[in-house]
Amino acid sequence: MDQIIDIATNGRHLSRDHGFLKVSEDNAEVGRTPLDQIAGVIVHAHGTTWSTSLLTELADRGVPVVLCASNHAPKSVLMPIDGHHAQGARMRAQWQAKTPLIKQAWKQVVTAKVTMQAAALDALGEADAPLRMMARKVTSGDTTNIEAQAARYYWPRMMGPDFRRDTGAGDENALLNYGYTVLRAATARAVVAAGLHPTIGLFHSNRSNAFALADDLMEPFRPLVDCAVRKIVAKRGAQIDTDTKQALARLIATDLPLGEGVTPVSVAVMKLATSLGQSFESGKLALALPAPLDRLTLAVLGA
Fold first, then answer.
1. Which of 118, 151, 215, 292 is most exposed, with minimal Cβ within 10 Å?
2. By percentage, how much of the chain surpasses pLDDT 70?
3. pTM of the predicted model, to two decimals?
4. β-pair partners for 7
């Protein structure tokens, strides 16, 4: 099973040891994980050091190393230069993709996100009909900004009437930052593995955002984090501790309906990125987007 490795204790050293990521403190081993099971490494702590051989091994496996600020928002992501075996051709197709295809892709992503938000509210006993209506009104390129309209309806019902999404704030916002960082790492890995360039997004286009495409493709999965954070806050409060981080990191193993079966989130983002790359090459859009989870599963995420 894919695992997220979180380094939150100051002064730890990370190294490679016979196919494992080894964590040490004062030259004594405190933990190890098989490299082949790692989906991402997230570092929050000060004074963390690592060996070059470890970073090379992680790069060989397409594993991102995410460096975070004190508010748990990502500040840097280390990713491999090499990705898919046909990376050059796929990136050229991505760069040359026609505007109508890109706009239709963003429409489908936004529709999937709003539909997942509606399912999340329904699972929590909140009115979801307005969001389902908005999902049907998303236009090519989301020119009427349904995504923002949906957010204004969604957040007060998901997190409470006084909640404001602020990446620099603490409490629930810091928990959301952490959950999204886990999701972003998994999606960034999927984008590179699919031979796509992470900077060239469908919608996100900030010049300083090196992972715009990952931010685009993770949108339909964000409500899973939101549901988990709401449950965590209700049960344990908004403190970020080991149990909280583990609960959020486990989200990438959550099974989602996709096609005729189910697949873990970590695999679903891989399939979505791969389907986008294939769409760029063929010129015909066919995205592998997940369907919403059932009410019971959404309601207990983060428990």
1. 151
2. 95
3. 0.84
4. 43
